[in-house]
Amino acid sequence: MSVSASAEATRLLPRWLLITVTTLLVAMVLIPVLYIVLASLNSDVGVASGEYWPSSFTLDSYTRIWTTADLSTGIVNSLIVCAFTAVASALLGTTTAYVLVRYSFFGRLTILRGLVGLQSIPGTLMLLPVFVLFSSAGNYLGLTVIGTRWGLFVAYLTFALPFSTWVMVTYLRGLPRELEEAARTEGASTVVILWKIIFPLSLPAIVVSGIFAFLLGWNDVLFASVLTRPETHTAAVALQIFGSQQEGGALPVYSQMMAAALICAAPVVLLYLAFQRYLVGGLTAGGVK
Protein backbone atom coordinates (compact mmCIF):
# COMPACT_ATOMS: atom_id res chain seq x y z
CA MET A 1 0.00 0.00 0.00
CA SER A 2 1.37 3.42 -0.95
CA VAL A 3 1.86 6.25 1.51
CA SER A 4 -1.04 8.28 0.07
CA ALA A 5 -3.38 5.28 0.20
CA SER A 6 -2.36 4.57 3.78
CA ALA A 7 -3.04 8.20 4.73
CA GLU A 8 -6.49 8.00 3.11
CA ALA A 9 -7.26 4.81 5.04
CA THR A 10 -6.30 6.28 8.41
CA ARG A 11 -7.95 9.70 7.89
CA LEU A 12 -10.75 10.26 10.42
CA LEU A 13 -12.84 12.54 8.20
CA PRO A 14 -13.67 12.30 4.48
CA ARG A 15 -11.52 14.55 2.34
CA TRP A 16 -14.36 16.89 1.36
CA LEU A 17 -15.48 17.27 4.97
CA LEU A 18 -11.90 17.89 6.12
CA ILE A 19 -11.51 20.66 3.53
CA THR A 20 -14.84 22.21 4.54
CA VAL A 21 -14.04 22.18 8.26
CA THR A 22 -10.54 23.57 7.67
CA THR A 23 -11.91 26.34 5.46
CA LEU A 24 -14.49 27.32 8.09
CA LEU A 25 -11.89 27.38 10.87
CA VAL A 26 -9.50 29.47 8.81
CA ALA A 27 -12.33 31.87 7.91
CA MET A 28 -13.31 32.22 11.57
CA VAL A 29 -9.76 33.37 12.33
CA LEU A 30 -8.97 35.47 9.26
CA ILE A 31 -12.26 37.38 8.86
CA PRO A 32 -11.99 39.23 12.22
CA VAL A 33 -8.30 39.94 11.55
CA LEU A 34 -9.16 41.28 8.10
CA TYR A 35 -11.82 43.55 9.61
CA ILE A 36 -9.33 44.90 12.16
CA VAL A 37 -6.81 45.65 9.41
CA LEU A 38 -9.41 47.37 7.21
CA ALA A 39 -10.79 49.35 10.17
CA SER A 40 -7.30 50.56 11.07
CA LEU A 41 -6.89 51.84 7.49
CA ASN A 42 -10.23 53.64 7.64
CA SER A 43 -11.12 56.91 9.33
CA ASP A 44 -12.76 57.05 12.77
CA VAL A 45 -15.92 58.46 11.20
CA GLY A 46 -16.02 55.70 8.60
CA VAL A 47 -15.69 52.91 11.18
CA ALA A 48 -18.27 54.54 13.48
CA SER A 49 -20.73 54.78 10.56
CA GLY A 50 -20.45 51.03 9.95
CA GLU A 51 -18.22 50.89 6.89
CA TYR A 52 -16.66 47.46 6.41
CA TRP A 53 -14.66 48.50 3.35
CA PRO A 54 -12.97 51.89 3.73
CA SER A 55 -14.17 54.60 1.37
CA SER A 56 -10.59 55.91 1.42
CA PHE A 57 -7.51 54.18 2.76
CA THR A 58 -5.39 56.21 5.18
CA LEU A 59 -2.60 55.64 7.71
CA ASP A 60 -3.63 58.54 9.94
CA SER A 61 -4.65 56.22 12.78
CA TYR A 62 -1.15 54.74 12.94
CA THR A 63 0.36 58.22 13.38
CA ARG A 64 -2.28 59.68 15.74
CA ILE A 65 -2.28 56.73 18.13
CA TRP A 66 1.15 57.65 19.52
CA THR A 67 -0.22 60.95 20.85
CA THR A 68 -3.75 59.80 21.66
CA ALA A 69 -2.63 56.88 23.83
CA ASP A 70 0.54 56.40 25.86
CA LEU A 71 1.43 53.43 23.70
CA SER A 72 5.16 53.98 23.21
CA THR A 73 5.90 53.89 26.96
CA GLY A 74 3.75 50.78 27.35
CA ILE A 75 5.46 48.92 24.51
CA VAL A 76 8.94 49.75 25.84
CA ASN A 77 7.99 48.59 29.35
CA SER A 78 6.44 45.39 27.99
CA LEU A 79 9.46 44.59 25.84
CA ILE A 80 11.87 45.10 28.74
CA VAL A 81 9.89 43.14 31.33
CA CYS A 82 8.82 40.32 29.02
CA ALA A 83 12.27 39.90 27.46
CA PHE A 84 13.94 39.57 30.85
CA THR A 85 11.17 37.20 31.98
CA ALA A 86 11.60 35.00 28.90
CA VAL A 87 15.40 34.79 29.18
CA ALA A 88 15.45 34.23 32.95
CA SER A 89 12.63 31.68 32.82
CA ALA A 90 14.26 29.70 30.00
CA LEU A 91 17.71 29.62 31.62
CA LEU A 92 16.53 28.89 35.16
CA GLY A 93 14.00 26.35 33.87
CA THR A 94 16.70 24.50 31.93
CA THR A 95 19.16 24.30 34.82
CA THR A 96 16.44 23.30 37.28
CA ALA A 97 15.09 20.65 34.92
CA TYR A 98 18.61 19.26 34.42
CA VAL A 99 19.00 18.74 38.15
CA LEU A 100 15.55 17.12 38.43
CA VAL A 101 16.17 14.77 35.50
CA ARG A 102 19.79 13.78 35.99
CA TYR A 103 20.06 13.58 39.80
CA SER A 104 18.16 11.60 42.42
CA PHE A 105 17.57 13.21 45.80
CA PHE A 106 14.97 13.36 48.54
CA GLY A 107 11.87 15.33 47.50
CA ARG A 108 12.54 15.09 43.78
CA LEU A 109 9.18 13.49 42.94
CA THR A 110 7.39 15.97 45.20
CA ILE A 111 8.92 18.86 43.27
CA LEU A 112 7.94 17.30 39.93
CA ARG A 113 4.36 16.78 41.09
CA GLY A 114 4.31 20.30 42.46
CA LEU A 115 5.29 21.69 39.05
CA VAL A 116 2.23 20.03 37.55
CA GLY A 117 -0.04 21.09 40.40
CA LEU A 118 1.03 24.73 40.16
CA GLN A 119 -0.35 24.89 36.62
CA SER A 120 -3.88 24.43 37.97
CA ILE A 121 -3.76 27.50 40.24
CA PRO A 122 -5.48 30.48 38.55
CA GLY A 123 -3.57 33.72 38.47
CA THR A 124 -6.50 35.71 39.86
CA LEU A 125 -6.24 33.68 43.07
CA MET A 126 -2.65 34.84 43.56
CA LEU A 127 -3.21 38.54 42.89
CA LEU A 128 -3.98 39.59 46.47
CA PRO A 129 -1.23 37.46 48.11
CA VAL A 130 1.36 38.79 45.65
CA PHE A 131 0.25 42.37 46.24
CA VAL A 132 0.41 41.94 50.03
CA LEU A 133 3.81 40.24 49.80
CA PHE A 134 5.26 43.00 47.65
CA SER A 135 3.79 45.68 49.91
CA SER A 136 5.29 43.98 52.97
CA ALA A 137 8.69 43.78 51.26
CA GLY A 138 8.53 47.49 50.66
CA ASN A 139 7.62 48.26 54.27
CA TYR A 140 10.01 45.89 56.08
CA LEU A 141 12.99 45.82 53.72
CA GLY A 142 12.83 49.36 52.45
CA LEU A 143 12.50 48.16 48.86
CA THR A 144 10.19 49.75 46.31
CA VAL A 145 8.56 46.79 44.58
CA ILE A 146 5.08 47.89 43.54
CA GLY A 147 5.18 50.30 40.63
CA THR A 148 8.55 49.12 39.32
CA ARG A 149 9.51 47.05 36.30
CA TRP A 150 11.56 44.60 38.33
CA GLY A 151 8.62 43.94 40.67
CA LEU A 152 6.48 43.02 37.67
CA PHE A 153 9.35 40.88 36.38
CA VAL A 154 9.45 38.91 39.64
CA ALA A 155 5.69 38.37 39.51
CA TYR A 156 5.79 37.09 35.93
CA LEU A 157 8.81 34.89 36.63
CA THR A 158 6.94 33.29 39.53
CA PHE A 159 4.24 32.03 37.16
CA ALA A 160 6.42 31.32 34.13
CA LEU A 161 9.17 29.32 35.85
CA PRO A 162 7.10 26.23 36.80
CA PHE A 163 5.81 25.84 33.23
CA SER A 164 9.27 26.40 31.70
CA THR A 165 10.79 23.87 34.09
CA TRP A 166 8.19 21.23 33.24
CA VAL A 167 8.69 21.78 29.50
CA MET A 168 12.41 21.30 29.92
CA VAL A 169 11.95 18.23 32.15
CA THR A 170 9.90 16.60 29.41
CA TYR A 171 12.51 17.46 26.78
CA LEU A 172 15.65 16.54 28.75
CA ARG A 173 14.27 13.09 29.52
CA GLY A 174 14.70 12.29 25.84
CA LEU A 175 18.32 13.41 25.59
CA PRO A 176 20.88 10.55 25.67
CA ARG A 177 23.14 10.39 28.71
CA GLU A 178 26.03 9.03 26.64
CA LEU A 179 27.02 12.52 25.46
CA GLU A 180 27.32 13.77 29.04
CA GLU A 181 29.18 10.64 30.17
CA ALA A 182 31.65 11.05 27.32
CA ALA A 183 32.19 14.68 28.28
CA ARG A 184 32.77 13.77 31.94
CA THR A 185 35.42 11.22 30.96
CA GLU A 186 37.23 14.11 29.24
CA GLY A 187 37.13 16.10 32.47
CA ALA A 188 34.23 18.42 31.66
CA SER A 189 32.45 19.94 34.64
CA THR A 190 28.68 20.20 35.06
CA VAL A 191 28.75 23.86 34.00
CA VAL A 192 30.65 22.99 30.81
CA ILE A 193 28.22 20.14 30.05
CA LEU A 194 25.28 22.48 30.50
CA TRP A 195 26.77 25.21 28.34
CA LYS A 196 28.24 23.12 25.51
CA ILE A 197 25.91 20.10 25.38
CA ILE A 198 22.58 20.60 27.13
CA PHE A 199 21.85 24.16 25.99
CA PRO A 200 22.63 23.59 22.28
CA LEU A 201 20.69 20.33 22.12
CA SER A 202 17.74 21.79 24.05
CA LEU A 203 17.48 25.00 22.01
CA PRO A 204 14.04 24.19 20.52
CA ALA A 205 12.53 23.54 23.95
CA ILE A 206 14.30 26.59 25.41
CA VAL A 207 12.76 28.76 22.70
CA VAL A 208 9.30 27.31 23.39
CA SER A 209 9.54 27.94 27.13
CA GLY A 210 10.91 31.43 26.54
CA ILE A 211 8.15 32.38 24.12
CA PHE A 212 5.44 31.13 26.46
CA ALA A 213 6.98 33.16 29.27
CA PHE A 214 7.11 36.21 26.98
CA LEU A 215 3.44 35.79 26.05
CA LEU A 216 2.45 35.38 29.70
CA GLY A 217 3.73 38.85 30.45
CA TRP A 218 2.75 40.45 27.15
CA ASN A 219 -0.91 39.42 27.40
CA ASP A 220 -1.30 40.12 31.12
CA VAL A 221 -3.55 42.98 32.20
CA LEU A 222 -4.56 41.97 35.74
CA PHE A 223 -1.16 41.97 37.47
CA ALA A 224 0.22 44.81 35.36
CA SER A 225 -2.71 47.08 36.23
CA VAL A 226 -2.21 46.47 39.98
CA LEU A 227 1.59 46.31 40.26
CA THR A 228 2.49 49.28 38.05
CA ARG A 229 2.05 53.03 37.99
CA PRO A 230 1.51 55.26 34.90
CA GLU A 231 5.20 55.44 33.95
CA THR A 232 5.61 51.65 34.20
CA HIS A 233 2.34 50.60 32.54
CA THR A 234 2.67 47.83 29.99
CA ALA A 235 1.26 47.84 26.46
CA ALA A 236 -1.77 45.77 27.48
CA VAL A 237 -2.64 48.18 30.28
CA ALA A 238 -2.13 51.22 28.03
CA LEU A 239 -4.43 49.63 25.45
CA GLN A 240 -7.05 48.85 28.08
CA ILE A 241 -6.95 52.40 29.49
CA PHE A 242 -7.21 53.86 26.00
CA GLY A 243 -10.22 51.68 25.21
CA SER A 244 -12.01 52.50 28.47
CA GLN A 245 -11.51 56.23 27.88
CA GLN A 246 -13.50 56.01 24.65
CA GLU A 247 -16.67 54.74 26.35
CA GLY A 248 -19.36 57.37 26.22
CA GLY A 249 -17.31 59.66 23.97
CA ALA A 250 -18.91 61.81 21.29
CA LEU A 251 -16.94 60.04 18.55
CA PRO A 252 -15.19 56.80 19.58
CA VAL A 253 -11.86 56.51 17.80
CA TYR A 254 -12.44 52.95 16.67
CA SER A 255 -9.92 53.17 13.85
CA GLN A 256 -7.16 54.23 16.24
CA MET A 257 -8.15 51.43 18.63
CA MET A 258 -7.76 48.88 15.83
CA ALA A 259 -4.40 50.37 14.86
CA ALA A 260 -3.23 50.22 18.49
CA ALA A 261 -4.31 46.58 18.74
CA LEU A 262 -2.32 45.66 15.62
CA ILE A 263 0.74 47.54 16.84
CA CYS A 264 0.61 45.68 20.17
CA ALA A 265 0.21 42.35 18.38
CA ALA A 266 3.10 42.97 15.95
CA PRO A 267 5.97 42.01 18.34
CA VAL A 268 4.34 38.67 19.12
CA VAL A 269 3.79 37.88 15.43
CA LEU A 270 7.39 38.79 14.62
CA LEU A 271 8.56 36.62 17.50
CA TYR A 272 6.69 33.61 16.14
CA LEU A 273 8.00 34.19 12.62
CA ALA A 274 11.58 34.53 13.84
CA PHE A 275 11.54 31.31 15.90
CA GLN A 276 9.05 29.27 13.90
CA ARG A 277 11.48 26.46 13.08
CA TYR A 278 12.43 26.08 16.74
CA LEU A 279 8.78 26.04 17.85
CA VAL A 280 7.98 23.04 15.69
CA GLY A 281 10.91 21.07 17.10
CA GLY A 282 10.21 22.15 20.67
CA LEU A 283 6.50 21.37 20.70
CA THR A 284 6.99 17.92 19.18
CA ALA A 285 10.16 17.26 21.11
CA GLY A 286 11.13 13.93 22.40
CA GLY A 287 14.85 14.47 22.46
CA VAL A 288 17.56 13.35 20.09
CA LYS A 289 16.78 10.12 18.28
Keywords:
mainly alpha; 2 domains; BP-dep_ABC_trans_perm; MetI-like fold; 289 residues; MetI-like
Characterise the protein shown here.
The protein is mostly helical and 289 residues long. It folds into two domains: 3-61, no CATH class; 69-286, MetI-like fold, CATH 1.10.3720. The chain has helices at residues 3-10, 15-40, 44-48, 60-68, 71-102, 108-118, 123-141, 149-172, 178-185, 190-201, 203-218, 222-227, 235-245, 254-274, 276-283. Helix 4 crosses helix 14 and helix 8 (149-172) packs antiparallel against helix 11. The longest helix is centred in the N-terminal third of the chain and has 32 residues, at 71-102. The two termini are 27 Å apart. The model has no long low-confidence stretch (mean pLDDT 84). It is found in: Cell membrane. It comes from Paractinoplanes pyxinae. Residues 75-275 form the ABC transmembrane type-1 domain. Belongs to the binding-protein-dependent transport system permease family. Its main location: membrane.
